[in-house]
Amino acid sequence: MRWGEIIKRLVLIPPTLAGVGVIVFVLLRIVPGDPIAMMIPPGASAADIDRLRALYGLDRSIPEQFVSWFGHVLSGDFGRSISLRQSVSELILARLPATLELALVATLIAIALGLAVALTGVYFRGRRLEWAVDGGIGVFLAIPDFLWALILLLSFGVLIPLLPTSGRIDPQIDVSFRTNFYLFESLLRGRIDVVGALLSHMLLPAIALALPFAALIARLLKASLSEAEDQDYAQIARARGFARPAILLREVFPNALIPTIALGGVQITLLLGGTVLVERIFSYEGIGNMAIDAVINRDFPLIQGLILTFAVLFIALNLAVDVVVTLLDPRLRHG
Amino acid sequence: MTAVLSIQDLHVTIGRGARAANVLRGVSLEVQPGEVRGLVGESGAGKSMLGRAVLGLLPADAWIGKGGIAFAGRDFLTLPERERRDLLGRQIALIPQDPMTSLNPVKRVGDQIARVLQRHLALSRRQALQRATELLAEVAIRDPQRVLGLYPYEISGGMRQRVLIAMAFGCDPSLIIADEPTTALDVTVQRQVLQLIERLRERRGAAILFVTHDLGVVAKICRTMTVMHAGRVLEDGETADVLTRPRHAYTRALLAATPRADRPADALRPVPPALIESLWSEAHRLDRLSIVGRT
Ligand SMILES: Nc1ncnc2c1ncn2[C@@H]1O[C@H](COP(=O)(O)OP(=O)(O)OP(=O)(O)O)[C@@H](O)[C@H]1O
Ligand SMILES: [Mg+2]
Fold first, then answer.
1. What is d(CA A236, CA A255) in angstroms, rounded to the nearest whole number?
2. What is the pLDDT of residues B196-253, one digit of tens each?
3. Separation between Cα atoms, residue B79 and residue B16, nearest integer Å
4. Domain boundaries, chain A
5. Which residues on chain A are in Cβ contact (under 8 Å) with B209?
6. Closest alpha carbon within chain A to B151
7. B141 reaches A (C-beta below 8 A)
8. CATH 1.10.220.30 given to domain A93-333
């Protein structure tokens, strides 16, 4: 009863989010750091500080603050950012599409790379090239995304300046976007020039995010492919006169895909977490970059809103992986 | 008449250097068109290795040191890869031992049968599926149309074996290698599957190399038989002759160890360990004499 499993997971989402909310809320207020201290002009009086503190409700006890904040969150109001003096939900909604588009492009690159490497590796099983592939995968697994971001920034931004290294789009390109999904919107509107400009900005951060994930996909998929190729049904296909590439693609790959997605799919959350540093390095205006500013400014409401947003994304991705695996595996689909 | 399968002095070794192990030590064997040849011998005798050598399914570290395999007079070992693949599945088919692991778990039954037919016969997908329906009916599967749309895990072991038999006979091969096709099934299903193989063979006239532990089955369906031990052929002949007048001590011991309806169960005697021992030491003596396996 795999679908039952998924429904159970759906039911668990609200309590999970509430738990995340409590933890973030309490932690923020226990660790040192005061949002008011970050925003007051030098020479402000103690009375001014107290007034500001009261304005943001920071003078009340933590449980009182939580109840008030959570009540508002339930009605869709995430409060106002202390440092940016804007509604948190508006701020996040404006920036979230940039991060989603970046993560999507990075994921697509990772899947393409991972597939190509895994299939190459398994095709050359038992030969020297397989060792090279395995070694390469190991190296790429060991280098984290932010390091790639710095390497790419230095190589293609500074040494050989081929690609833009900051922002989401050139400021002189004037497109009056109606949504914040710039990439989707320009694709839909057929603005290929804008798509090109957007992608050229996205490319370096997306590759930085994609490389470790690609290595992970390659390792999982290659292991699953090797295992599946040793199964009787794949061996017997050889005795039926099928060529090895055809067997790998048609018989082995569909079987290897299922464990790979089940194990590797949830790791997209790592890629999403990676956006925080990588967006910062490339001054890309997404919620990751915003999260760093929010933390520097001890902007409690914004941090809380961002963490909840990330939590929702993580949960949604995990659920999506489960649904995809269920759809792919006939034994689960009907079981 | 050219033998459909002719194996000459086949030596197969697994591994190299110090870890090399001979699994076939000069096997010769012929299967004539339409002939059903039983291949018997204790576990580890090399029966499966022989079948795998013919089908090109030897383990990656196995190698053929010496000898030849000819299919209908064509040297199979020197045949270009592409031509060999055109014969495999088309002229030479396999009925595997374990129906639970021999079908692709994520592909529908119909898809798997149709793919083999499309590979070797010039059929469209639609024609192949139509042919698959007929094949399933021929292996006595009720409601074949429905079964085509099922996944392997949705059908019983006996049904799966029928599907695999349908796939083996699908392109009307002239040789089928059946490696213990009924051992994984329960007794009542075993009998049905055997009858089915018999019937299809009669109708379509394929030769079968039938690997089995069961001398009763050999007596029933095999006209000729080969007895193997330690990668060697010990005895070979018409089934009736071998079973009534076995020449080799090992065959006699095998017969004495086989339950029969006309004999009380307590008359059963296991194959004497001393005999097995002497056969193995002879095999190892041969290993030392030959250079094969020592490289
Ligand atoms: N992959 C392998 N690697 C190394 N040795 C193997 C491998 N497969 C089989 N062998 C060895 O080869 C010999 C012959 O094995 P084979 O499977 O052909 O026996 P068999 O006659 O089919 O036995 P059974 O009746 O149990 O199926 C055995 O000694 C076995 O240990
Ligand atoms: Mg065997």
1. 15
2. 999 999 888 899 999 998 898 999 999 999 999 999 999 999 999 999 999 998 999 8
3. 25
4. 2-74, 93-333
5. none
6. A330
7. no
8. no
